[in-house]
Design goal:
mainly alpha; Cytochrome p450; three-stranded mixed beta sheet; three-stranded antiparallel beta sheet; binds protoporphyrin IX containing FE
């Protein structure tokens, strides 16, 4: 490589490192990713390989050489899993590393087959009725107001209420999970967590485990048609979830599900407000809602990164050698702006077709909750377009987190 090329790659890698350690401060990484895709598509930052091209991201998800499980075990050990002082904590760590999202190969396949029962289209259709009535109620609550926080009062409240109702628990419980999830997610970004962080993660895993252990006991004594009872009963080919797998699954559904969906709705609304022509088009033609939600998923998805994976043998990704054991991150945001797949990738176009984005990942780990998330977003946007007056931004929102991309609040007012 010529000197110029080498120094350009070195500068890009410095920027990538900065973008990864201070994602909010760095701002929008679109132009950085465009250059990476072009000249350093499997880049390197902090000892991690970062893939930015659509095809390489898809390979990272599809190719069974890339193990999620090994990275999950390494993360758990880094956060103190090896030093669990009592049996409950040991089981809590076991539940967190065995969960579907952290499993590989045959273990993953077995768990996935059992869980798919709970997310069948017939089940989603049943939930859609409740999602519709909760949405109607939330929209009625803000109707007639001159100004409100769209993120708090609509975008987040919908998935929070939905997941609590699905699990058959009071809405207040969501506040508990929120704190535990935040502690786990915050620590997952630190390579060398301090003792206070490790203690917070340990407490969060223990609390999740004890909370769901009690809930499962209550349900076993009194089964209903809620998601917890559904998962207790779920089976495939005579096989069911063990107690630890069941508790891990419930924790995973909380961590994976409602914050992502809340951010999708808030981020999507923000883009509509920034693109008044697209907002007007959707109000005129609400039948475009499904396509608009797909474009929101592509353009401003909350899940910007895959969970880290590692190759189990030396491999090549996008022609770049990657040694066994090297952590690999797949950038969903960069893949979803790849011009080799998307025409004018940086335009927000609610009529985009085709729109084969990777917001829900790909391969065996394709998001199990994708239809639930899509249903919530579609029902919410149909309601907003048909039942609320035209809204405008009351103030520019602040990005709270760019790893799971989302804002602090989204204050809107009626024009
Ligand atoms: C807009 C909302 C959502 C987005 C953008 C999203 C995105 C993702 C992504 C990118 C993955 C793959 C993670 C990886 O392996 O790197 C994933 C997996 C998963 N998601 Fe979602 N998700 C959303 C909503 C939900 C909801 C509502 C649920 C369920 C309540 C859910 C449950 C899961 C589960 C169980 C997996 C693991 C699948 C497996 O490993 O086989 N997600 N999601």
């Amino acid at each position: 490589m010529a000197d110029d090329g080498e120094s350009r790659v070195a500068a890009l890698r410095r920027d990538l490192q900065r973008a990864m350690s201070d994602q909010v401060g760095f701002g929008r990484p679109d132009s950085l990713y465009a250059e990476l895709r072009e000249i350093d598509p499997v880049s390197e930052a902090n000892g991690i390989r970062v893939a930015t091209r659509f095809e390489d991201v898809l390979t990272g998800y599809r190719d069974q050489c890339f193990s999620r499980h090994r990275q999950a075990v390494a993360e758990a050990l880094a956060h103190g899993a090896g030093n669990a002082r009592d049996e409950t904590l040991k089981l809590a760590w076991e539940a967190s590393t065995a969960m579907l999202i952290n499993a590989d190969g045959p273990d993953h396949k077995r768990l996935r087959q059992i869980l798919e029962v709970a997310f069948k289209p017939t089940q989603i259709r049943k939930w859609a009725e409740r999602i519709q009535s909760i949405t109607d109620e939330l929209i009625a609550n803000v109707s007639g107001r001159r100004e409100f926080d769209f993120l708090r009062e609509l975008a987040f409240l919908l998935p929070e209420r939905v997941i609590c109702e699905l699990m058959g628990v009071p809405l207040e419980d969501h506040g508990l999970w929120g704190k535990w999830t935040a502690d786990i997610v915050a620590a997952a970004r630190t390579h060398e967590p301090c003792p206070a962080t490790m203690k917070a993660v340990e407490d969060a895993h223990r609390n999740f485990f004890l909370y769901f252990r009690d809930l499962v006991r209550q349900r076993r004594a009194n089964m209903g048609d809620d998601l917890v009872s559904l998962l207790i009963r779920a089976e495939s080919e005579g096989d069911r979830l063990s107690e630890v797998e069941l508790l891990g699954t419930l924790q995973m559904l909380i961590e994976a599900g409602h914050e992502t969906t809340g951010n999708l709705i808030a981020n999507g609304m923000y883009e509509l407000l920034r693109h008044p022509d697209q907002y007007a088009l959707l109000r005129d033609r609400p039948e475009l809602t499904d396509a608009a939600v797909e474009e929101m998923l592509r353009y401003c998805s909350p899940a910007q990164w895959s969970l880290p994976r590692e190759p189990v043998v030396d491999v090549e990704l996008g022609g770049v050698p990657v040694q066994a054991g090297t952590p690999v991150l797949l950038s969903l945001l960069a893949a979803n702006r790849d011009p080799s797949l998307f025409d004018k990738p940086d335009s927000f176009d609610i009529q985009r077709n085709p729109n084969r984005h990777l917001a829900f990942a790909g391969g065996p780990h394709f998001c199990l909750g994708n239809q639930l998330a899509r249903t919530e977003a579609r029902i919410m946007f149909r309601g907003i377009m048909t039942r609320l007056p035209v809204l405008e931004l009351a103030e520019e929102p602040r990005l709270r987190d760019a790893f799971v991309r989302g804002y602090d609040s989204l204050r809107v007012r009626v024009t």
